[in-house]
Amino acid sequence: MVIRAFYAMSLMFTVMEMNRWLDLRDSSVINPQWPAAWIDASSPRGHIDLILGLFLVGSLSAALWPTYRSFRSLYFVGLLQYMAVKNGFGKVNHDFHMWLWASGLFVALPTSKMLRTPTARVRHSVLSVVWAVQVISLFFYTLTGLWKLAHAFKAIAASRPSAFDLNAFSLIVADRLMETSQRAILGDFLVRNSFPGWVLFTGTIYLESFALLAVLRPRLHRLWGGGLILFHLGTQLVMGFTFIPAFAFLGLFFLCSPFAPDRSSAREVVADLPGVLLVIRWWRRRAETASSVAVSS
Amino acid sequence: MRRTILHLVLVFLMVVGYSGVLLAHGLNSDPELFPVFRWSLFSKVPNQVETNYGIRLLEVHGEPLAWGVYFEQSGGFGLNYSSPDASVLTQAIGAATTPGREKILADRLALFEDRFLADAAPVRYELVRRKYDVIDRYFCDCYISEEVLGEFRVE
Predict the structure, then answer these.
(1) ipTM for the complex?
(2) Are residues B119 and B139 in the same domain?
(3) A162 and chain B: CB distance < 8 Å anywhere?
């Protein structure tokens, strides 16, 4: 079901992307990413049309018949080519990156024949691929968090403003909004008020850095999915941009995670939070040591 | 059980492979190796006083402007002024102004002109290096200094 929904949403995003297609077709200067390096740079229109056609046919056929590996492959190749063209203008955008890797991994799903009569082994294979998609996507968030930490420590060593500073987020928001002359609902507020920004930014670093650990703890799937959705909502409110496909992706693979238990108590979820278990164990050990010292004395 | 272990190993190898490609390509190398992105997003906190590059329009549709208008403020001319891509490309253009990178500079300028200025041609513009206090500029749109690096024209 998750996979069918993935391809149905893929078609929806393809249709939403069509607004940009006229501009893409009119491009006379392009420096595509390597998968589309075969494009004739002096006259790219014909080749861009071919890629757009391939992308549309791939999206449509995978949405209608997602069990067929050939159509899943066609969609993956179409999306790869499309992103190679779309990101061929001096900047790489990351909005469809998770979608691309998921579609690549879904090529490895069992064949349509196997999916028609799913044995336990076939179901296991399907779940393994879905889990791989969860791992790679949260790994990307972990990378983002680790970069923030790495740059923060580097900045501290160089006596420059770091992500831990109280006004760090205000500086980031102001710089971003100025560069694009955008207005955001909470932009002004967070530029003027450092503390709420510091809380949000520190929370984001925690959420991102430990994302990969969360995927190993099914009780955290919905919490992390919801947390990251709030983070993407926050970038829209504060910086005036967001990755729309990320909402669908996190909703599909984490809020609807097939591994998340139907019910888990708040206490269990809190105990699973990265760092919390360590603190609990340390606290218990400390209490045990204190009680044994009291008994022996 | 053996199958589960195999799947775990494959997923682990995927993460290790991705990290390996990142490291082999160079963590700070630009451009990134598509589709293996670094995911370094908003990692660096700007200094209180920053220096960057701007494209300042002097003539739009062949009409000279009373005063220069930075591209990111050129909404009145119907340009895609708020594009983050334009901002990133502008910084890349500025980074290519060092001696020995003339070909890269020309390519990046051509890309910018085709994608962001073609609708306003003929256009005359200049590339400016500007120094500013981040918070001050946010509220008053003012700069500590502005240095013109070159003037260009799109017919």
Answers:
(1) 0.80
(2) yes
(3) yes
